[in-house]
């Protein structure tokens, strides 16, 4: 390989001149891995600019370049649509949670708060079931005493330590503040007759007492470990604070 004489007519100054063996080597490399050329935008543009009257090979080369650009554009459009869809979904979810919290803030008393939480909130945030669970001095899971009977077991008293136990029922589970997972047979312990396929478990700190807000959905993809938990963290904090304002009138172990 050598540099061509810059004084040569019609040749670019400093142009690289390849011997036959080097040309064969480059040709074999490209034939072995065409992506070396096709995936390099600068190389493709240089090849097209270097051609004279378009022959069939050059037309094919340009067609291939256009095809590659169309593929990249399609991927970009798909990614853009996915981002926009996720943004809309996030905005919609935020609005749902805010409306649910506003609904709870308007509760007149304890029974009204619990009724709104367990009956109205599921409809507002597009889920199928809500359980408010409070640890108390009881031997097994039971409907909380002192709660309006028409809540149908949606407010539950749990034995001491049951919140932690339920959060870590699965061998690979981690007992964080928020746990999102596929439902299992054990989910019946809380949701009973309302069958769910996925659940979001929100740990509640009720002034030192352990509590759990369980959200259930018949959609197996509604709650998954990969999802963000910011909105659920906000909702759990709001529910805990509002519950504390009413719990003085509720004795789960009575």
What does this structure look like?
Helix 4 packs antiparallel against helix 5 (110-124) and helix 4 (56-105) packs parallel to helix 8 (230-244). This protein has helices at 20-32, 35-38, 41-49, 56-105, 110-124, 162-167, 188-191, 230-244; strands spanning 2-3, 16-17, 129-136, 142-143, 155-159, 178-182, 198-206, 209-217. A six-stranded mixed sheet has the order 4-5-3-8-7-6. Strands 1-2 form a two-stranded antiparallel sheet. The model is unreliable at 8-13 (pLDDT under 50). The chain is built from eight helices and eight strands. The chain is an alpha+beta fold and 254 residues long. The longest helix has 50 residues, at 56-105. The termini are far apart. Strand 7 (198-206) and strand 8 (209-217) form a beta hairpin.
Number of strands: 8
Question: What is the general shape?
Answer: elongated
Low-pLDDT stretches: 8-13
User: Which CATH architecture of one domain is right?
Assistant: 2-Layer Sandwich
How far is the N terminus from the C terminus?
94 Å
Instruction: Give the rounded overall mean pLDDT.
Output: 79
**Corresponding CATH superfamily of one domain:** GAF domain
CATH class of one domain: Alpha Beta
Q: Strand order of the main beta sheet, please?
A: 4-5-3-8-7-6
Task: Give the strand content.
Answer: 15-25%
Helix content: 40-55%
Question: N-to-C SSE series?
Answer: EEHHHHHEEEHEHEEH
What structural class should be given to the helix and strand makeup? alpha+beta
Largest sheet: 6 strands, mixed
Separate helix tally: 8
CATH topology assignment of one domain: Beta-Lactamase
């Amino acid at each position: 390989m050598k540099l061509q004489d810059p004084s040569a007519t019609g040749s670019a100054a400093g142009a690289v001149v390849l011997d036959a063996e080097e040309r064969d080597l480059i040709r074999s490399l490209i034939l072995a891995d065409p992506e070396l050329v096709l995936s390099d935008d600068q190389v493709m543009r240089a090849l097209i600019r270097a051609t004279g009257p378009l022959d069939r090979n050059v037309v094919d080369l340009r067609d291939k370049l256009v095809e590659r650009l169309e593929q990249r554009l399609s991927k970009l459009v798909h990614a853009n649509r996915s981002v926009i869809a996720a943004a809309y979904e996030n905005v919609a979810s935020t609005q749902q949670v805010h409306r649910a919290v506003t609904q709870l803030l308007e509760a007149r008393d304890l029974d009204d708060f619990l009724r709104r939480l367990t009956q109205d909130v599921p409809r507002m945030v597009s889920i199928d079931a809500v359980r408010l669970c409070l640890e108390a001095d009881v031997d097994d899971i039971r409907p909380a005493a002192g709660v309006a009977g028409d809540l149908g077991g949606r407010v539950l008293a749990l034995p001491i330590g049951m919140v932690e136990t339920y959060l870590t029922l699965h061998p690979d589970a981690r007992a964080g503040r928020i746990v999102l997972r596929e439902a299992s047979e054990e989910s019946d312990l809380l949701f009973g007759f309302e069958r769910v396929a996925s659940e979001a478990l929100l740990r509640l700190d009720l002034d030192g007492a352990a509590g759990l807000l369980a959200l259930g959905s018949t959609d197996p993809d509604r709650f998954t470990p990969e999802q963000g938990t910011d909105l659920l963290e906000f909702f759990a904090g709001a529910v805990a604070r509002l519950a504390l304002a009413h719990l003085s009138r509720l004795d789960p172990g009575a």
